[in-house]
Amino acid sequence: MTIRTSIAAGTTTAIATLIANYQCGHCISTTELINDAHLLIHHDDHCPVLTGTLSATPDVLRATGGQS
Fold first, then answer.
1. How far is CA 35 from the centre of its chain?
2. CA distance 24 to 12
3. Which long-range contacts (CB under 8 A, 24 or more apart) does 35-42 make?
4. Where are the domains of the chain?
5. Residue 37: other Cβ atoms inside 10 A
6. 36 Cβ partners below 8 Å, 6+ apart?
7. Counting C-beta atoms within 10 Å of the first and last residue's C-beta, which end of the chain has fewer, N or C?
8. Does pTM surpass 0.85?
């Protein structure tokens, strides 16, 4: 299995919340902190979120409690 990555940027609080709580609803995702304002979200190769078929918005809102 190869893992692909997307990147997220935001406030320190938002990034901390995302890295602690983000789970992709369609694959086994992991998060990796780059710095206080950026993180990588690793998805499986055929994840519909990674390929752009589905939006990551529901997963982000769920992870941040709606405060993104």
1. 15
2. 21
3. 36/12, 37/9, 37/10, 37/11, 37/12, 38/7, 38/8, 38/9, 39/7, 39/8, 39/15, 40/5, 40/6, 40/7, 40/8, 41/5, 41/6, 41/7, 41/8, 42/3, 42/4, 42/5
4. 3-64
5. 13
6. 12, 15
7. N
8. no
